[in-house]
Amino acid sequence: MAKKRDDELNIKIIPPEDVIAEQERNAAKNASPAARHRKTASRASSAERMDVPAEEAEPVLEQESASEQESAPAERRLRPRRRRFFNILPAQRQRFAAWGIIAAVVIVVVLIGVAIIRHWSYHSYKIVATQTVDNAISSEYCNLGGNVLRYGTDGASLISRSQSTIWEVNYRMDAPKVSVSGKTAAVFDGDGSTIVICDESGELGTINTDMPIVRADVSSVGTVAALLGDSSSNSNFLRYYKSNGEEIASIKTSINEPGYPMDIALSEDGMLLAVSYLSYADNTMKSLIRFYNFDDIGQNQMDNRVGQFEMEDILVPEIEYLRETTAVAFRDNGFVIFEGDTVPEKKQEVKVTEEIESIFYNDRYIGLVLDNHTHDSQTPAGVSEGESANLQTDETAQDLNAGAGDAQAGDAQTAGSGTDQSEKASGGPENAGSDEKPFILNIYDLNGKELARKPMDFMFETVEFSGNQVSFYNRNELCVFGLDGTEKFRGTYEEHTRQLFALDTKLYVAADEDGITWFRLK
Predict the structure, then answer these.
(1) pTM of the model
(2) Is-contact 234 261, C-beta < 8 A?
């Protein structure tokens, strides 16, 4: 009998690979859940060895019907995914632990570094360089952007740290003084009529005034505010100039209204001017702090005035802008902080009971040196603190009408951010033989928070912030404190000097009759 063909017998030939797949599907349906997961895990591990994703290596077991997935228990549906999660977690734990250890090590290193810097002390100094300067005996020096600005009666020059002369400016002044803001300086002739503005690149311009210059202050952009007038007159003028000498504004003041200008200060951008006035009427002394705005806001105000603050029975001999929007008025019993970019407002007030010997500041901190002997004896028995202030300032106020020049002569003389106190800090008879340290060093931040209060016995002439340190000087000695009041260095400079000041935390300049010397603490 003849064979029938396969198509006649309706026999369907299934390829071998399809047969194997069909058998695996049937076995998977009939297998227990535990067996399924063992098989899934085995194939997933095989896929990992072959660098093939598990989803691609096991398409059959993942493709259950929707009805089967819905009818399966929740534990069964979630078990494969949960297993994959716990397989990954140990690696994540290791990474997190590693990063945690690294972060902890960095924090410890930073804390150790801060502690070392805070308690670091210097033991000696090293001469870095010396330079001979012509007419050194008639020259003064200051820090201008990390370089040395020399100014005298015949001109000024800027000397770099490598002892090269960056620029020179010639002029003629009888009593040169300087105002510095950042990297800009104004050299002006006290009681003269010339102001020379310069920066790191050289001369920016010259201003010639029509009246004697009493005070001048420069902004970092080169604009200048000048207080002009005769010390024997009853009127003064506040003049505001561009660096090229062009007059921007002029404000007339009188000893009766608003009073005698004790000090002036320009903001960094030159838009705000702060003035401290002293007036005396009806046997009452009063200080006024006025703010003038030379921007658009001040154009609509009388005399550009945008703010005024009164202080009864208080003397405010100095005012200064420490930042673009932060001004500080130094009183005879503390200081007041003002804040504002257009209309300044009173931010904080700090009072002290001791007599203030010196004030110093930079763009981050405020420092006071107090007389330690006046803490308990300043206020007589039976007299309140306010009445004591009246007793101390009545004589100063009564002298005001006798001559405005006397009030000016009694002001604290400052150079940059340091205050000269050569007479008060020279260690007079009252300090001789005393076991108690004669001074107290107080340091504050610009919020008025006290950071340090430390008794000290160094007899100083000038003091300034040098980086994150405080440097005290006399003719041939240097004493350095940290911001926490820790003494870091005390030593004697071998040569007799006319002036000492800092360029940065460790680098200092000593000026003598022959020239200048750079030396570094170590």
Answers:
(1) 0.70
(2) no
One-letter amino acid for residue 233 of the chain: S
- HSE at residue 223, side-chain half, CA atoms within 13 A, is 19
List CB contacts of 296: < 8 A, sequence separation 6 or more.
Answer: none
User: In sequence order, which residues have a C-beta less than 8 Å from that of residue 116 and are 6 or more positions away?
Assistant: none
Q: Which residues contact 244 (CB under 8 A, 6 or more apart)?
A: 204, 205
Rg (CA), the chain: 39
Cβ proximity of 187 and 176 under 8 Å: yes
Q: How far is CA 274 from the centre of its chain?
A: 20
CA distance 216 to 226: 4
In degrees, rounded to 5, the angle at the alpha carbon of residue 449 between the alpha carbons of residues 448 and 455 is 105
Counted residue by residue, the chain has a size of 522
| Main-chain phi, psi angles of 458, to 5 degrees | -75, 125
- Whose tokens are 């940065």? That residue is 504
Q: What distance, in Å, lies between the first and last C-alpha atoms of the chain?
A: 118
Helix (H) or strand (E) holding 166, with range, is strand 165-170
pLDDT 10s per residue in the chain (522 long)?
A: 444 444 444 545 555 555 556 666 666 666 555 555 555 555 544 444 444 444 444 444 444 455 555 555 554 554 544 445 445 556 666 776 777 788 887 887 776 665 555 556 898 999 999 999 888 888 999 999 999 999 999 999 999 999 999 999 999 999 999 999 999 999 999 999 999 999 999 999 999 999 999 999 999 999 999 999 876 667 899 999 999 999 999 999 888 888 999 999 999 999 999 999 998 877 888 999 999 999 888 878 888 899 999 998 899 999 999 999 999 999 999 999 999 988 999 999 999 999 999 999 999 999 999 999 875 444 333 333 333 333 333 343 334 333 343 443 334 333 345 554 433 333 333 333 346 899 999 999 999 999 999 999 999 999 999 989 999 999 889 999 999 999 999 999 877 788 999 999 899 999 998 899 999 999
Q: How far apart are CA 323 and CA 325, in angstroms?
A: 5
Helix (H) or strand (E) segment spanning residue 128: strand 125-132
For residue 439, count other CB atoms closer than 10 A to its CB.
26
**C-alpha pair distances (Å), 79 with each of 41, 74, 75, 82, 83:** 11, 8, 6, 5, 6
